[in-house]
Amino acid sequence: MKRVAILLIFVLAAGAALAAEDNLNRGMKFYKQHRYDDAFQLLRRDHSEAAAGSRQKLQLSLGMVALRSAGLYQQLYSLSLRMSLGYLTRLIADEQQLDSRLVKLYLGMTLLQTGELTESTAFLAKFVDDKGALEKDRQLAGIDLGAAYYLQGKKDRAEKFWSKINGNPSDPSIVTSLASVYNRLGLDAKDPVALCSGALAQQAPGTQPSIRMVSDIVGVYAGRSRIDESLDLLRQSDLRSYFHEEMLVENKVIRFYDPMLLLNLFHLYASAAVAYLQEAAGGPDEKLAAAAGTYLCEGYEMTGAADQSQQLAEKLLAEPKWPAWMKNRLTIRLATAQYLLGQKETAESQFQQLLQSKPDPDLAAELLMACCNHGIDFPPAVISATELAQKGEGKAFASLNHALGRYYLWKKDYVRAVVHMEAGRDKSNKNRIEFNDPLMLIHLADAYYYSRKYSEALEIFFEMSKQFPAVRQIQVAIQGVYSMEQKSAGDAKIF
Amino acid sequence: MKRLPIVVTIFLMMCCLAASPALAGQRGDQFPDGGALNYGEYGRPATLDPITSNDMISLRITELIFNGLVGIDEKQEIIPELAERWEIEEDGKKYTFYLRQDVAWHPREGEDAKPFTADDVVFTYDIMMHPQTITPLKVRYEFIESVTKVDDFTVTFTLKRPILNALAKFSFKVIPRHGLQNQEFLTREDPFVQAPIGTGPYMLKNITADREVILVSNENYFKGRPHIDKYIARPFADQNIMGQALMFNAIDMIVLVNHRDIPQLQGDKRFVMQPYNALSYSFFGFNLRNPLLVDKRVRKAFTYAINRQEMLDSFFNSQGTIISGPFAPGSWAYNLDVQPVPYDPQKAEELLTEAGFTKNGDGIMEKDGRKLSLNLKVPIAKESEAVKRVVLAFKNYLQKVGVDIQPEFQEWMAWKEDIFLHHDYDLMYASWVFDDSADISSLFHSAEIGSWKNNFGAFSNPEVDGLIVEAKLTLDHEKRRTINRKLHEKIADENPYTFLWTLTNYAGYNKKLRKVAIHPYKFFSFADEWYIPKSEQR
Predict the structure, then answer these.
(1) How is chain B split among helix, strand and coil, in percent rounded to 5?
(2) Interface test with A, best of B56, B164, B481 (most A CBs within 10 A)
(3) Which parts of A55-159 are beta strand (E)?
(4) What gap in Å lies between CA A451 and CA A409, rounded to an integer?
(5) Number of H helices, E strands in chain A
(6) pLDDT per residue over B283-311, tens digit each?
(7) How many angstroms away from the CA of B167 is the closest CA of chain A?
């Protein structure tokens, strides 16, 4: 994966003598440093005004950056969901927290996202019935309760809830939340985009939309080619903001966050990646178009369009002129798509062929990572990666160790997960994303969290928050769990 | 007392570790015994007992020599140690510990080993809480009302009030009643602090002329004989030499790898690098007994005057994180909303002017005829190249805003006496390391001002005191979190320290050491399970 990126950067940088291409080079430098937000903003600035000659390069670069951002937010969402649930579950079980109303609301909302509909319904229904809660919050609960009913096949009941709220929303954010639910459930006929635009128009002049509104709108706009509007909205927002703050007794405040923000950011960047890469894949330079196609397969895979990924990979593989590294990469994408489309034997045979070709560490890593990301249990990939990893150390094996760590994380063998990822970590700059793939750091933090080494996980996110402020919700959830789980005597020593 | 029938009773039988003659002295696992572990320390321990010690070097050694009533395992679970089980009354105010009956104290030379009993537990508590005992522990155990020996192997602690995580606090190390010269209190003059005996996996053999501390395995350790025969703590005044010693196999482990050595060690297949100890930070501390430093604007001016990021980047290769207050960023108590004070020398001068200082002809700030000329005491144990540069940079930054700093590097013990005992300093440089509890009460509560106490700078603020007490009293985790966020904000504003950074902390060790698990704070908690394969023992 790393080699492919480096080669592409070489392609992109070639002939960069023109001043107009300086930003492209700077953007790709940010990309190499994993500063995806910085890269994306810089490249996007030039995109609309780019001359035809450099436009395709920009599109490819933007696509690559957005794809990596999407991959990050996808993992962050998965992690935040589990950690938020861990935190809220502990809160609700703690009798000291009985005074918190909002814990029920947020637990209900989070359980809805994890698909635990019965439990979610119970919490949300209780909150909706709570006359002491604010009307706005009860409406919020009602929207998700409607979603829970809808997903349980009780569509009439869902509609009843929604129409009651839609008839008398207490706040513009209620409208966007409703739009968000319609969007997630694929109820396009209810025109979630119009609901969002209407709510934004209602916003008092000079006031910023709340973080919940921003999150909901971004989620709705993401899949509808309204990428620029979403990005503008995000730029004006503080993604560290809490969604709710509950002041209880004196000196007791609980802050609540919604993991959905991270899912919406994933959707936004995944949509942007596909859009830019499609443009680049259709551009005049066939090498750039093929490179874009390779990434686009991954983008399709990420957005659930495995059939499109398969078709494109097959089309590109049919062309004999591409170098072996590109073909290998495309084969991974093809096999992954085949697996996702139920062609398990064909997929495994493709994987097997790649393994027999004695893959280098990066290729073995990419293969194993694809398996882990899609829950493909293919033991030869692990065996091959393990054998390769034993042959070396250092930077050249970093992605392979990451993939093995990711595999053991998936298998809940946290000790081995940590060992592998630590082996690939740049220890001189252990938490800095410029020197370590942030995806690896996220997985490592995940493994540390389940190993109950919370401080190691928190250190990672503390540094990561400088480039990805939306991780604040993860930091707060881990802090909450850590404060409850830690058992120490209260010691401090000088050194 | 109304004893409730198993209301909150925890029975944790240590089946595999249970006392039986067959197992005594053997671990019952397949790993080999033998070999020695030489580890490098960045100084020598001041004392070797768990009561008077207040530095990390001592803590690591006491972890090998002593046990608590309970321990805390790798998964943050409370496990039995000297107590094999316990009962907690429903109201959370009475803890009864049933002690193991197979534990013996390390024997003094020429003497038989004496049994560990409830008398030792009561004695330890009494010694710890005696007003004349020199210890930072008192503040942690003031929640205990009394301790009673029920019989030779049963003790009951009555609490003044229930507290959060009370059980974990019974991990304090127990010392032998027969071991101390003075039976009432413990000071650093008692021979015990340099020649302790405990119940732990390792026994102190001797301290060499080179100040190496040599520990040998306790063949009769109640959890089974530890695998490695000998632990040798070797002090290094120069961290660069310590790194070289590891590279040339003169030592097997470094407890804290010098930042300059990280890239080299990372690239060497012979070694393992393990992160730990995330809850630490470095700081410049102010002595608030000096009238020039009483005004918080003056203290804040110092923080604005220095470019911490530049220092971190230049002297530690950016291997750390700038912090904004009294908790480490890896702590659950860190207030993420409080941002570090930016580098702003102009603001620093403005604050000093506001506080009544003016520059004299030499460019030094003065107030009421007193120059802002201050000493800065730095322990020699921290004398790495990087620290020297930090101190020099600090001096230079402050010179630019009209503050004269005179650094003094001191031998570790002399430094500790100046800071903790005599309070003879203006500014000091050091680092704190915390366990997971994020308890800063001993650092900033006004009751902790005094000889050998951790609030050496005499910081006193009624609001901070109130919040610290409230945090201790509450049984509510979320309330405690909120209070800690407030404490962070308040202390950052009061600026009793110029908070610097949390550095990247790694232990480095030779791969011949196996089954190595490092406690993030105490380090050697699981060292009795480490081993060296026969083929690699020397």
Answers:
(1) 30, 25, 50
(2) B481
(3) none
(4) 11
(5) 24, 3
(6) 999 999 999 999 999 999 999 999 999 99
(7) 8
Domain presence at residue B143 = yes
Section B252-275 average pLDDT: 89
Please tell me whether residues B520 and B420 are part of one structural domain.
no
Q: B157 and B134, same structural domain?
A: yes
- Nearest CA-CA partner of B402 in B375, B443, B365: B365
- Going by C-alpha positions, the residue among A361, A305, A359 that lies closest to residue A331 is A359
Q: Which domain holds residue B108?
A: 8-19+33-236+505-536
- Chain A touched by B76 (CB under 8 Å): yes
* Closest residue of chain B to A476, computed from CA coordinates: B332
Whether residues A482 and B521 touch (CB distance < 8 A) is answered with no
Burial A321-338 (b: 16+ CB within 10 A, else e): ebeeebbbbbbbbbbbbb
Tokens at residue B406, please? 């005179």
Contacts of B470 in chain A (CB under 8 A): 251
Query: What residue ranges define each of the domains in chain A, with the CATH number in brackets?
Result: 1-95+280-304 (no CATH), 96-264 (1.25.40), 376-483 (1.25.40)
Q: Mark whether B309 and B422 lie in a shared domain.
A: yes
B481 near A CB under 8 A: yes
What are A207-251's pLDDT values in tens digits?
889 999 999 999 999 988 798 899 989 999 999 999 999 999 899
Question: Are the CB atoms for B511 and B206 separated by under 8 Å?
Answer: no
Q: How many domains is chain B built from? A: 2
SS3 B507: strand
d(CA A17, CA A117) in angstroms, rounded, equals 58
> What would you measure as the largest C-alpha separation in chain B, in angstroms?
81
Indicate whether B165 belongs to any domain.
Answer: yes
Beta-strand pair B404-410/B373-379: parallel
Backbone angles phi and psi of B436, in degrees to 5: -65, -15
CATH of the domain at B379: 3.10.105.10
User: With 0-12 CB in 10 A as exposed, 13-18 as middle and 19+ as buried, what is B132?
Assistant: exposed
A447, A427, A445: which is closest to A436 by C-alpha? A427
Q: State the first-to-last Cα distance of chain B, in angstroms, to the nearest integer.
A: 58
Across B145-163, average pLDDT? 96
**Model ipTM value:** 0.92
Q: Report how far residue A107's alpha carbon sits from residue A91's, in angstroms, rounded to the nearest whole number.
A: 10
Distance (Å, whole) CA A425 – CA A402: 9
